[in-house]
Amino acid sequence: MRAYVIGNIAMDETIIVDELPISGASILGHVGTHDLGGKGTNQAVVMARCGIPTVLVAPVGQDSRAATIRKHLQGEPLTSELISIEGISSDISLIFRLPDGENAIVTTTDSAQRLCASHVAPALAEAKPGNLAILQGNLSPEATVGILQFAKSLGMITAFNPSPQRSFFSDIWALVDIVFLNRWEAQALTGAEGEAAAKYLLQKGIQEVVLTLGSEGALLVNRRETIVVAASPGMVVDTTGAGDTFMSVALASSLKRGCQLDRKALEHASHAAAITISKVGTRSAFPTTSELDQILSDGQLDAVN
Length: 305
Description:
Keywords: ATP-binding, Carbohydrate metabolism, Cytoplasm, Kinase, Magnesium, Metal-binding, Nucleotide-binding, Potassium, Transferase. By secondary structure, the chain is of the alpha/beta class.
């Protein structure tokens, strides 16, 4: 089983602040971490660290930032298919991290918005029916629809993370098999909360909905049942990338066991996310390959007990 993650890639710059700036204000902050990021890349890195053969398809500019991105990717156990876009800067994320670990993120999408379905098709040439195609909300409407349609034509399973929020998401649900979203995204997309929001999405054609609820845990809703999983305890230092960790580990758990998403997949994902929020940074905060191997084999980790 192989996973193809098609999405954005960026360099993350974290600034530590006591409060978020308001319009017209200048505030002081401290330099935080400098790391590889972007939702697509985050999900690919964690998926690969779980031991799933993973291909990352992402656009970059023709600049020094792209060279830095390539250097960082060499240390990860994935195959990267970076699409070089002429005349465009590689993307960057500015992360404002508050003392309680919560954050606000501003991400440029100059490169991500220029990616086309035609760029992606050659990278999916070896995809087989049942392989996983994973997308997020950073690509253009045309690219998102085109890639999902192409993936479905190949018999791939499509998983989607509707973040950041975009107005066209309501038009693509028939092309999505699995969706992962948080409570705020669910409210914005459906006008409902909790299980009601998930069932709304099921009516639109999605097969499985995973709704993350922060410290309240997560829901898995399909046409057979609703499963509630508690959050794993852990000290919150920085929540950046926690949702990406959760999604990737849940999918990897089900893939490695040859089954659909289930309670165990969400429990594995919760344990992994607890590790991510206990560390500062993005990629550097993700569980290591050995930590994920222990989680996925139902071993115990002190960090998440």
